[in-house]
Amino acid sequence: MRFTTVSCLLLGLFLAIPGGAAKVPKEPEASSAGKTIAVADAGYAAVLQAYRGELTEEQIEILGESDPAPVLYLSPKNPGERAATRFFGSLPDDAHDQLQRTGYLKWRVDRLPKEQRGWVKEAVQTQEARRQGPFPLSGKAPAVTGFARIQVAGLERPQYCWWVAAEGASPAWVTVVRALGLLTQEYTNSYRKQLPELTEKPETEPIPNGRWLKIRDTPRKPTPAPVAPVLADEKYYWSVVRAYRGQLAKDELRALTDQDRVLSDRLKSSDVPARAVNELFAKLTDAQHRALLTTGRLIWAEGDLTKAQRKQVDTVLRDLNARTGEGMDLYLLSPAFATRTGFALVRVPEVETPVISWWVSSPSVPHPSWIPLANNAAVKSAGYYRAHLEQLPGG
């Protein structure tokens, strides 16, 4: 069974770059203070410009080819991560130099200026919603926070993260520079080893209030007028439905699967969670399939599922929870746990036919997880993961 998900929890499994060498856009020339950033690391400097609101959406799109962090975290859909990046961007240039030289910056949260404390609060709320922490922001033992340089095996250049830690809680983090290979085993091990070491290090000298930088919002391009979506070739779509329902003749099925490895593998799979998703799709009513064709998505809350559908979804979620390796259930069907699930048609750039995907979202993770049901050409396309991040409900 193949799972794909993007988030700080699972996204990087699919964004890892062999050898870790990232292609970086043209090195930026100046910071918001009008001075050249004294950084030999062009990727760091480019991301910093993005977080300071000095790059346009188009420039951030190009930057996303080598580092997806700004594309993902500057979105208002991810307020916790966005707050961490604004905190990062507001550091003066000499603090960035210090971070790269010494490997860390560290302060008690209650000693930060009001604006920076507000961003930390928003970032912490997101982490605690994912059952990290707790990270008290005041009191006798407030959390400590800052930024760290993390060297991950297989990456040529170091990553940089915002981090927060508190007594009795493991550190939480958001990778703000080089969000590559997130939650590969090497990534997880590196952060879990290196971040706790910061709790023993001395605090960084405070930055005077007047030296923190003001952050500008990213210049936005005009929003185009909405157009009616052209979602799928209906003949193709209904052929896929009939394949999952076992209603295609052998020659028709062979013609369809010979050119679609994803569909072929799923129909042959004996994996129990895979079979559950297959059955869930096959047993959609014709009216539900027409709704998916018309709107591009089906969305169910826990109370919307039939008893049979709930059983199928539970089977998949148990497997997905086990695969996270976090020792906790990130996806639960419960009235108190706002998990959403369904199906979607996802348009991938330069691929004519959309991907048919099952998806699930949870407040415990920043991005939805999904499983493609058909369209190998789109799954292999470079724009596949990002298209799902941008188009799936909850993304």
Description:
With 395 residues, the chain is an alpha+beta fold. It folds into two domains: 4-211, no CATH class; 234-391, no CATH class. It is 37% helix and 14% strand. A five-stranded antiparallel β-sheet has the order 1-9-8-7-6. The protein has a four-stranded antiparallel β-sheet with strand order 2-3-4-5, sandwiched between helices. Helix 1 (42-51) crosses helix 4, helix 4 (79-89) packs antiparallel against helix 6 and helix 11 (272-282) packs antiparallel against helix 13 (307-324). The two termini are 22 Å apart. Mean pLDDT is 82; it is low at 1-39 and 225-230.
Mean pLDDT across all amino acids: 82
Strand order of the largest sheet: 1-9-8-7-6
* SS-derived structural category: alpha+beta
Uncertain segments are 1-39, 225-230
Query: In which range does the helix fraction lie?
Result: 25-40%
How many domains make up the coordinates? 2
Strand elements, count:
9
The largest β sheet comes out as:
5 strands, antiparallel
Distance between the termini: 22 Å
Question: Strand portion, in percent?
Answer: 5-15%
Counted by DSSP, the helix tally is 15
Order of helices and strands: EHHHHHEHEEEHHHHHHEHEEEHH
C-alpha-based Rg, rounded: 23 Å
Shape: elongated
